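Q&A log
Question type: sequence-to-structure
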Amino acid sequence: MLGGVVFDMDGVIIDSHPAHRLAWKGFLESVGCETRDEELDFILDGCKRAEILKHFLGELTPEQIADYGNRKDELLQKHGDAVQPMPGIVEFLGHLSAAGIPSAVATSATRRRAFGTLEELGLTCYFRAIVTGDDVTVGKPDPAIYQLAAQRMQESPERLVAVEDAASGVKSARAAGMRCLGVAPSRRASLLRTAGADPVIPDFREFSFGQLEEYFR
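Response status: OK
Response body:
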């Protein structure tokens, strides 16, 4: 029996990837780091902000990580109007709530950005627990964030389904003992399947709660 659903945030609940690309590209250029578009795909793989900064800029002090992260977030705020719920997700969350199926969030985003974004979009009310990158010392693909989400939901991981759009997130959920539903366009679907997601859907517009129950019965 399905005990709950744990959602990643960026690219699953909110359509934020275009805004993130613009913000990261602008920030990296401001510190003299030129990046190609394909290199920016790294930011979409569910890593914590500190890991992204180290990937592009090398070893940094905690003070640099905090400063650079704040500067990147300032750029992201300028593109905030472009961040909206993913197609069909609000209706899907409503169906889960009506069926009495609890939901949670497990995101690599900072606590400030996660709570701020979900609150601004009026989505906080749907979630029993919101676990962020600030709550764990190691990010995805380590299972810690999904293990903590299960603890806060007071559920066994085996009764939970994770919803992810990044291979590292799928691996994190699977390592925590959860089954995983992937959300990705067709060009990226194979990456999620290889990581362990099954099925993989393009979005929630044509995916019902009944289908979720059927897949994970």
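Response note: The radius of gyration is 17 Å.
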